[in-house]
Amino acid sequence: MFKEYFQYKGISFPEFIYSPCALQTVENNFQVLDDDVFNVTYQKSGTVWMLEILSLIQSNGDPSWCQTVPNWDRAPWYETVLGLRRARRNHSPRLISSHLPIQLFAKSFFKSKAKVIYTIRNPKDVLVSLYHFAQMFHPFKDPGSLDQFLEEFLKGDVPFGSWFDHVRGWMGLQGHENFFYITYEELLQGSRGTGKTTSRLLRVSASTACTRSGCKVWTSPSPGTTSDSLTPTLIPHPRELPHRSTEPQLEQGQQARMPGFCSQV
Questions:
Q1: What percent of the chain is modeled with pLDDT above 70?
Q2: pLDDT of residue 188
Q3: pLDDT of residue 189
Q4: Which domains does the chain have, with CATH numbers?
Q5: Catalytic residue flag (residue 166)
Q6: Largest CA distance in the chain
Q7: Which of 91, 99, 176, 243 is catalytic?
Q8: Residues 182-204, buried b or exposed e (16+ Cβ, 10 A)?
């Protein structure tokens, strides 16, 4: 069982799927290409949902890519040990996912024309979702009580550091032509404008993507209901995501029921 995190430049990371060597390589040596698209979030903020949207846009609405290729191959988390290898292996144009704070991101990005899609979620909902996730995900320390975890979350003593610092850092790019942000709550509203705006940023025809996919991803209340044929690709690789023997049920695409869950937030 994994109980401790290691520190990389003041940010905590769980062992097993991350390593100081991989993080250093990503920051200093990963070569970002001008047509790369990065799906960036703080953890538990809609990463997979946006990944499915971007996958359909990138494939012009053809769902076969989503149906046949797992999400960890389509848009690997490039700061992980295995994800770094996959990102380097994938052909251009690449989709890449990341939870990294901006100060640890690949330095080559800031000299490129690559694009970042940044999804933000209400920190209360992030807290509750992350608490459940930490209870079931072996590389995370046992979170203890919710009150205890709340204190650690507010201090940034959780993997990937402070939610507040993460959002503040990335939102510093607001106004740049290669940076687009959206909230998880906007995704929940199910507006087709989400897909169209994202398509414009990626210079892809939204009409083609909507026609072929029916816009199901960005008009549905949760990523799990986008299409039955897409659901298998949302399942994490078992070797990469070892879980505890007792796993609480996670509710994807739902806002946390905070009044009865955490009265002090």
A1: 70
A2: 87
A3: 84
A4: 16-125+163-223 (3.40.50.300)
A5: no
A6: 48
A7: 99
A8: bebebbbeeeeebbbbbbebbeb
